[in-house]
Amino acid sequence: PAAAEPPSQVQADLGLAVVGVGYEKPLGDHLAIMGEAQIFGTYFLPWFDLGNNVTGLGVEARGTWFRGGNHHGLYATGYLRYDEVNDDEDHGTFGFCGGLVAGWAFPATDRLDVRVGGGLQYMRYEGITTDIDTPFIELDLVVGYRL
Q1: CB 27 within 8 A of CB 7
Q2: Which of 43, 28, 36 is nearest to 82 (CA)?
Q3: pLDDT tens digit at each of 147 positions of the chain
Q4: CA-CA distance, 32 to 64, in Å (whole number)?
Q5: What would the 3-class secondary structure string for the chain be?
Q6: Which one of 22, 29, 121, 138 has the lowest number of neighbouring Cβ atoms within 10 Å?
């Protein structure tokens, strides 16, 4: 008999610059799409002389490929995030961030999945005190609850 399609998940995204909640829908054994709402913050940019701290709210769309048919093991994901942000000087703007991540997905319990990965993101925010137009590292930590 054929294996059942992996279940949908409610996910917590605990990345380097975001904390978000999303919903992921499998598209067969090896693919999934996810939509997410999040709080965004670039607290680390002043450390690297890339501009002021930037905070805001955003939405993200993510597509993920899994090597394993059960959505575990090696994974690769691409995403695009759109944010409304303010900097330390209270200047507001809209901007976006896109990235590519690879990592490992594994079951933590019967209902919880965990993904840990790393990659590269590109951030672009204009109209704030110091425009941000730079690549930066991406750390991925996603915890999913299987529905």
Answers
A1: no
A2: 36
A3: 456 778 999 999 998 888 999 999 999 999 999 999 999 888 888 887 877 788 999 999 999 999 988 999 999 999 999 999 888 888 888 899 999 999 999 999 999 999 999 999 999 988 888 788 889 999 999 999 999
A4: 5
A5: CCCCCCCCEEEEECCCCEEEEEEEEECCCCEEEEEEEEEEECCCHHHHCCCCCEEEEEEEEEEEEECCCCCCEEEEEEEEEEEEEEECCCCEEEEEEEEEEEEEEEECCCCEEEEEEEEEEEEEECCCCCCEEEEEEEEEEEEEEEC
A6: 29
Contact 87, 41 (CB under 8 A): no
**Stated pTM of the model:** 0.90
CA-CA distances (angstroms) from residue 41 to 102, 103, 110?
22, 23, 32
Report the Cα 34 to chain-centroid distance in Å: 10
Pull the structure tokens for residue 86: 């303010």
Distance CA 55, CA 42 (A): 6
